[in-house]
Design goal:
single chain, 334 residues, alpha/beta, Rossmann fold, Helicase, Ruva Protein, domain 3, 2 domains, 5-stranded parallel β-sheet, two-stranded antiparallel sheet, 46% helix, globular
Length: 334
């Protein structure tokens, strides 16, 4: 049943709800823009992570404001923030915490690590050895950590934003596929435009602008509930599954020449991540329903780290972004 305006009552109600609940988005983006010049795409992906609870891997060369962006977002939402600089000599206890002996009463007291924060920045995550990466993986997946014989829940919301340098590989420990799969999005951070870099240069001679908290965590939690109710048609769910399956069985998608280039297709987490991220993307745009463009916009960030290319693809200098683009070009849009 539709109203006189031609809009179904439930969709019209959802439009009104999103109009009210998403009002903070523009205010938040403007507050972040006081500090961060450009990088709108990266900032939007961080907001999508906050709205869905999905962890994000940021990849880019040094100096692109990855760390500053994460810290700025945390301050703008009045969230606790911690940064861990990953190094080869880092220990799991340096991240999750450990037991400290108290000689006064001859007991061991827990000393919680920097993982106990709403927003955790894992800087240069690929510089940490496997034991540290696995400790972080448990926290990301279970949202809890064990210190001694006691398990402690992590604060809510809890979001890990990890960075890695794609150029320098000496002394690094590449993330295993299982851990990469825990990140909802793998975002490649690009250089600013010439005009943006000119603005950065001008701001470098000015006094830093303080970031004010324009929303609190309760507003964010409420928005998360709304994002989960953003409408996604069954045809779009089929579209997401078709895209994921095309990375596993490219022959059936009409892409037989991609088969020798892909060793491993996207996991079921890709379907879940793309569904959640598309809803959050629609919410950021103030829309009550997911469009195919939302799925296309987030697809490369969802698939980038979940598709493993073959040696043949590496020999032919085929990039994963090219494979993803061909999949999206081949799968019909509903």
């Amino acid at each position: 049943m539709q109203s006189e305006s031609g809009v179904a009552p439930d969709i019209r109600h959802m439009m009104e709800v999103i109009r009210d609940e998403a009002a903070f988005v523009e205010t938040l983006q403007n507050e972040i823009a006081k500090v961060i010049v450009g990088q709108r795409r990266m900032v939007d992906r961080i907001l999508i992570g906050l709205l869905t609870g999905g962890h994000i891997l940021l990849e880019g060369v040094p100096g692109l404001a990855k760390t500053l962006s994460v810290h700025t977002v945390a301050n703008a939402i009045r969230a606790s923030f911690s940064r861990v600089q990953f190094t080869p000599d880092l220990l799991p206890a340096d991240v999750v915490g450990t037991l400290i002996y108290d000689p006064r009463n001859h007991t061991f007291e827990p000393r919680k690590g920097p993982i106990f924060a709403n927003v955790v920045l894992a800087d240069e995550i690929n510089r940490a050895p496997a034991k540290v990466q696995s400790a972080l993986l448990e926290a990301m997946q279970e949202r809890q950590v064990t210190i001694g014989d006691t398990t402690y829940p992590l604060p809510s919301p809890f979001l890990v934003l990890a960075t890695q340098n794609p150029v320098e590989q000496e002394g690094t420990y590449p993330l295993p596929e299982a851990q990469q799969d825990r990140f909802m999005l793998h975002v490649k951070v690009e250089y600013p435009t010439r005009d943006e870099e000119r603005q950065i240069l001008a701001r470098s001679n000015q006094k830093p602008v303080p970031v004010e908290a324009v929303i609190d965590l309760s507003t964010l939690e409420r928005a998360r509930g709304i994002v989960g109710n953003v409408h996604a048609d069954d045809k779009l769910s089929d579209y997401i599954v078709d895209l994921v399956w095309a990375t596993r069985e490219p022959e059936k998608a009409g892409l037989p020449d991609l088969a020798p280039l892909i060793d491993m297709g996207a996991s079921p987490r890709a379907s879940i991540a793309l569904n959640k991220a598309a809803r959050a993307h629609a919410f950021l745009k103030g829309r009550p329903a997911v469009f195919p463009d939302d799925i296309k916009a987030l697809g490369p960030d969802v698939f980038r780290h979940r598709i493993k290319l073959s040696y043949e693809a590496e020999a032919e200098n085929v990039r994963v972004e090219e494979v993803v683009q061909r999949v999206f070009d081949a799968v019909p849009v509903p």
